Structures are given as C-alpha cells and as structure tokens.
Description:
- The chain is of the alpha/beta class.
- It is 23% helix and 25% strand.
- A 5-stranded mixed beta barrel has the order 9-10-12-19-17. Strands 16-15-13-18 form a 4-stranded antiparallel β-sheet, with no helix packed on it. It has a two-stranded antiparallel sheet with strand order 2-3.
- The relative contact order is 0.16.
Amino acid sequence: MVVQSAFRYLGILATGLLLASGPVLATEVEDEERAVERQQETDHPAPNKPAHAPQADDADSSSEPEPLQMPLALLNRKVEPGSFATLHWTPDQSFASIATPVPVLVAHGQKPGPLLCLTAAIHGDELNGIEMVRRLMYELEPDQLAGTVIGVPIVNLDGFRSGSRYLSDRRDLNRYFPGYAKGSAASRVAHSLYSNIVSHCDYLVDLHTGSQKRINLPQLRADLDNPDVVAFAKHFGGMTVLHSPGVSGMLRDAAVKDGVISVTMEAGGPNRLEPQAVNYGVQALETLLENLEMRKASRFWSAPQAVFFESEWIRAAQGGILLSEVKLNDKVKKGEILGTVTDPISNTGSAIIAPYDGKVLGMAVNQVVHAGFAAFRIGEVKSTEEVEAQAEKASKEKTQSHPGAEEESGDDSNDQPHSAGQPADNSSGVAVVDDPVDPDETTEE
C-alpha cells in the first residue's frame, strides 16, 4: 500500500473540504489507587506482533506466479482459505469454570491480502458497532475475498449483558491496552484480546458510539500526524475525519504503536440501535474493503472527506434542564445559541453559545445536567492554508523533540485556540470551554 504524507492528503482534499479544530482527549474518572495501577500496567510493552509477509511490488507481480493463500491459524484453530468460521476467544478471568467464550467471526479469503480486524462493544452499551460487524461479516463471500476479515462483535460481554459501558469490576476496558498478563482483571482481558487477536492484524477499525447520553456524528478518529494512518483513513470514502492522537491505554493507540494501522469509528449514541448511523458505518466499511482491494463493494463512496484538525466540547455554565437548538452536522456561527439550560425551580437559565464558527460533531441529548457538563462538540472551520501550516509546525516539533517527550508532556499545547477552562463570559451564563485534560471527559472512545 502506497503511503502518502499528510500534506499531500490535505492537498487532495482541499476542494470541498471543511476543516476545523483538535480533539479534546478523554480520560477515565479514576481514583488514585486505580490510576497508579493502570499506569504500572500500561508501562508493559505490547506483545510482539507477528511479522506479515511483504506485499509484492507491482513490477514483479507479472513475472512471478500468484501466491497461494495459506490457512489462518487463530485461537487454536485453522481456518481454510475461502471459508467462514465462528471461533471463540475466552478472556482471562478469575472464574474460568463459568467464563463465557466470546464469538469471533472470521472470513478467510481465497486469495492473499490484508488482514483487517473489526472490534465492537469494547464498551458494552455501544450497540451500533455490533450491528455493523454483523451486517458486514455476513455479506462477505470468502471465495471472492482477497485477505481476511476478523470481526469481534461483542468484546465486553459482561457490559453488554448489563447494558453498561464498563467491565464487571467497573473498569473501562479501553484504558488498559495492550494489557498485562499479571495485572488487574481489565488488564488481563486487554492483554488476552490484544495478544490473541489484534496483534495478528494489519489493520484495525475499533467501533464506538458516544457515552453518557451523548451522540456522535459518524466519524473517524485518527492520528493524522501518522502518514500510514492518514492513507488508511482516506479509504473510508466520505466519512468525516477528526484528528485525534491516541491516549495511552486505548486499543487504537496501543495498536498503532505496535505497527497495526488503526482508526476508531464513532457513530451515534449508547444503548440504542440507530439504523441511519449503522448504514453510514457499513457503507464506509464496504468502501474500505474496495479501496484495500479485498473485494468489490456493492456500494462505493467517493465523496470528499470533511477533515477536522481541532474540536472542543462546550460546557454548560449552570445546572438545570438542557434543551438543544441545533442538530448533529449543523453548521454554526460564532455567537449562535447551541442550547439553553434552565433551572426548573427558579426558572432562571443561561444559553450555551458557540465560541467560533464550526460544525456540530457531537452533542448531549436533552436531559438534566450539572454545571460544567460537556454539551456540544464543535469542530472549528479552518482554511487549507491554516491546517497545512499547523501540520507542518506539528511535524517539525515532533522531529525536534526528544524520544518519549510526547508521553511525558501529553498532547496538550500551550497555544490552544480557546483558553482551557475559561468561561467566555461566566457572569452572563455563556458556556465554559472544555479543558483539554479534564479528567471527567469520557466521550472519546
């Protein structure tokens, strides 16, 4: 696969693109003991990733015989070329005698090609991804497929049964990758999934929705400072792309660091099945398979992508009943009212105001909220020239930085476009702008 630079990607997308602002990264709400424990576990490196056979150059392919597809060895089974199989993965748990194996769907193509992994319901209340995996896997015809697709529709069976985001020990599984075989229960599950399935893959799409009664516009979260990830993100057709460097402990971050090219797909909200979001996601995955030359798509999406390099959650300045006045994907202007929060007893309220021109990428459903609640995620519109200059600056800073500097200092810069945690006008009830390192932000993966 030809890897293109981020700059070339931006140039191709310049016509018709809508460009806006960098994500606020989510972290789990953790007590001190759990945070220290997780840090110790994430200090362990990912399991060694098996080497993949190099792709033959186009120039040599005509003179050499076409390679034969080999059986796939996975989870103590062998899947023959041109076949579909349901395997089972058993996470490491303390009660092995009552553990329920997790189904793993495998479509092993007749011809050689990439190995793509799809994971869904790492958070047990995120249902849209489960349906995406089901629809895509059961429409594949392995005898017409080049490469292999591995689908894990429900990673977190415990959370799925209870309708909860978390594992049974109340830990967020997507904060413990690549895991540690001798760590906490969450870390052991993460290690088992990563070493037994994800580490075998060339590409990973991790499927998610919004959390805590929030919904997301269908979008990819991808580290657009990584040229391999940039090239991969282009293969999804017209799906919106949001620049999002991974956070330590997330599956996507662990995979990219280990050489598995990965993105997160967000679509819709938790504890619901949304046909429109599911259809959107399946169409993007079908386009991905077409562009990876794994199979011909029944639907091909060639629309230009909207790329947002910066975005922020806008918070409520007071508690009360939230009523939105915008919808997902709406364009908003600076000063426009996004919604209102009203105290039902005193009948006093305040407006949540857009601090800049942009587009609604995520939002909370109407509900009772507390002061500081993240209500609307706005992607900031920028020109192509501004984005290219910012990308060039980030590339130079990364080149000049010492090894490990990003992990030590985090992703947050001192020149955020909107000052973190500072209300635009708190006395007038205008929303508080999100803090990039706010520990209660859990809407990101």
